[in-house]
Amino acid sequence: MLQTINPFLVAGLLFFLSLVAGTLSEKIKVPALILFLGIGMLAGVDGPGGLDFSDANAANQVGTFALAFILFSGGFMTKWSDIKPIVTQGVVLSTLGVLLTSVAAAVPIAMMPQFTYKDAFLLGSIISSTDAAAVFSILRTQKVGVKGALKPLLEFESGSNDPMAVFLTLTAITWLATPDVPLSELAVKFVVQMIAGGLMGFVMGRFACYMIQRLKVSNEALYPVWGISIVMMTFGLTESVYGNGYLAVYVCGIVMGGGDFLYKYSLQRFHEGFAWLMQIIMFLVLGLLVNPGEIINLSVISVGLLISCALMFIARPFAVFICTFFSKFNFREKLFVSWTGLRGAVPIILATYPLTEGHPQAKYMFNVIFFVVLTSVMLQGKTLAWAAKFLKLDAVVREAKTYPLAFDITPGSGSQETREVDLMPDYAIIGRQVKELRFPEGVTILLINRGAEFLIPKGGTVLESGDTLLLFGEREKLSEVEKNLSRRADNNNK
Predict the structure, then answer these.
(1) Fewer CB within 10 Å, N- or C-terminus of the chain?
(2) Quick one: 156 and 216 in the same domain?
(3) CATH assignment at residue 421
(4) Distance between CA atoms of 317 and 311, rounded to whole angstroms?
């Protein structure tokens, strides 16, 4: 049993198994979060690991800490140019959509003899948010993309709807503890939390960009420490002024992602890896908190299945169609958005709040919610790719290449970026030398990917069909160059 082994060895072993599981998830087409939870459950008291962990308070604190970094990383990796066209629709879905989902889910739950109408609202609030990581890790492992504005909409909605779910859950707990609290007081509290969270996130994001440009850190390796401190300060300061810390770190990430500062690329890569570490830790801890023997229970399974069906086929579609009524999305797109409402780690984390508050049905609720999450990920997750193809919304996923170089754009470089251009067999430039290309000033070829090789471009390098050019330059100039490179041979002289 793991309890008798050195704790450092136990932690290292669990991390190692999680990394192996994450690699295997793409091959066996099972979401990584399910495997992480499974490893935690196997390591727990009912599994062969035998670790006895039942501290809901500690699990809640770990989940809060991990979720702050996961949301920050999600915002940091988001391009404002991608989400700008859908930001209004995304905000509506991540606020009103979450509220409508919680209410619509609470109605059938309140009809069950196990729950009061207040318990039903608490359960509906806990399961009201979607999980961006689950949605896109599943689509990525199944090699399926989605067309048009759907991808940024789903990313933005599921990355920004957690604060609303947290607020609704805490509101429901307050309502249970103090039934006489007026709704007007809760409404004012919501407005204050959201406004304070958004403002603090924006201010801290601008502050971080400003300071990092003026810091004279002698060791580049210390910049990730700066990034960690920003996330913790943003969350802590926002909570101190009664704002929503989750919203603040997400907004802070978006602001920093659109900022211009030294070592930005390195900082993004660090936070991407750190967010993965946080996900692994979070799922392992939540898996340890679960007793599989309590999940495999007729009452939990039957109630969990009923709630899952109500959530997938009634609550989520109802909220999506109401929130997108005046949007430009067609019926098929709305249907797909409805089906991508996967539940992930956040509902399980929120389910620890009733445990910490000593709610009489907290443990039963936790087990039901855990089962709902498993059902959502396995059923919706396994059919996402099929749904995208069935609704004719699927797009070819371009495999991201890993280049043997890394560089950071210096402050003041403006809209400079890298871009990949694949050379098709009928392009006019096939067979021409690099020196014959007439690129505008400031645009250059960094590398040429040819099969398994990476070539450093020289004047005499001949371009071949299937080559991928890694270009660097200003965004507007790159678009012009890409258009010129993509001209067909039969149109070359037109």
Answers:
(1) C
(2) yes
(3) 3.30.70.1450
(4) 8
Q: Which tens digit of pLDDT belongs to each residue from 438-448?
A: 888 888 888 88
Helix 162-177 / helix 245-257 crossing angle, nearest 10 deg: 170
Question: Does residue 385 sit in the same domain as residue 435?
Answer: no
Shared domain for 392 and 420, answered yes or no, is no
User: Using CA atoms, how far apart are residues 65 and 58, in angstroms rounded to an integer?
Assistant: 11
How far does Cα 359 stand from its chain's mean position? 30
Say yes or no: 365 and 456 in one domain. Answer: no
Closest CA to 201 of 242, 255, 157, 239: 255
Q: What is the pLDDT of residues 282-319, one digit of tens each?
A: 889 988 988 888 888 899 999 999 999 999 999 999 99
For residues 250 and 392, give the distance between their C-alpha atoms in angstroms, rounded to a whole number.
Answer: 32
Integer-rounded Cα radius of gyration of the chain: 24
Which comes out higher in pLDDT, residue 400 or 56? 56
User: Dihedral (C-alpha) 90, 93, 95, 97: value to the nearest 10 degrees?
Assistant: 180
Q: Could you list the residue range(s) of the whole structural domain that residue 470 is in?
A: 416-491
Q: Which two tokens stand for residue 483?
A: 């258009």
Helices (H), 297-404: 298-310, 316-323, 331-339, 345-350, 352-357, 362-390
